[in-house]
């Protein structure tokens, strides 16, 4: 038999009301990129608020769920002399409607904002872009082509020698995404970019890199035995350095 527990002290109630509020508030004051840097690419500018918003929404839902779990465990414990089971109820229609509608609203809101952002990301320039680069996935590396430097300006990587994708700073590039065998995923984590390389399908993506540096790139679709070796680097260089890189490719492939 359980001993009668003292009335729940008011500080426990305060803890459960104030602690979540504090967590949320301190979280809000420090909403950073949550792992992503702002303004690194034109895609980051669009996606970052969605990423932050999704985490805040998840935090709020998680907190409410935690309170709902812990609350009965503390405040509805078995009392001395109480029957073995508390009063059993079923078919609480208002509650069931609530827990059907609330998740639906959450999913609908997330879907809406995702669709809005996605359509902005895949938007094509009405006029011509500054540069074109081809990105072909091959088992198991990448092939980058630079049509501005001629049809032969193709850099092919291998698992032993991963290739580098040169990208001009601050200039919009249209990427043509293809595959010559299976499905691959062109992924530059820091730029919040991923688009699939599909055999028989040509995808396009346009974006601008906004900060000089070298960033890791990966294939993020399990594409076969050596999938993990499908790595590459993205090197963001100044427009003049990009021009001379194109010249080097042109000279090497004449
Ligand atoms: Cu792959």
Automatic annotation (TrEMBL):
Gene Ontology CC terms: membrane
BP GO annotations: ATP synthesis coupled electron transport
Keywords recorded for this protein, A-Z: Copper, Electron transport, Membrane, Metal-binding, Respiratory chain, Translocase, Transmembrane, Transmembrane helix, Transport
Name of the protein in question: cytochrome-c oxidase
Domain Cytochrome oxidase subunit II copper A binding, residue spans: 128-248
Membrane topology label: Multi-pass membrane protein
Entry similarity comment: Belongs to the cytochrome c oxidase subunit 2 family.
Stored SUPFAM superfamilies: Cupredoxins, Cytochrome c oxidase subunit II-like, transmembrane region
The protein's enzyme class: translocase
Source organism (scientific name): freshwater metagenome
TM stretches of this protein: 54-75, 96-115
Any Pfam family matching the protein: COX2
Annotated localization: Membrane
Entries under NCBIfam families matching the protein: CoxB (TIGR02866)
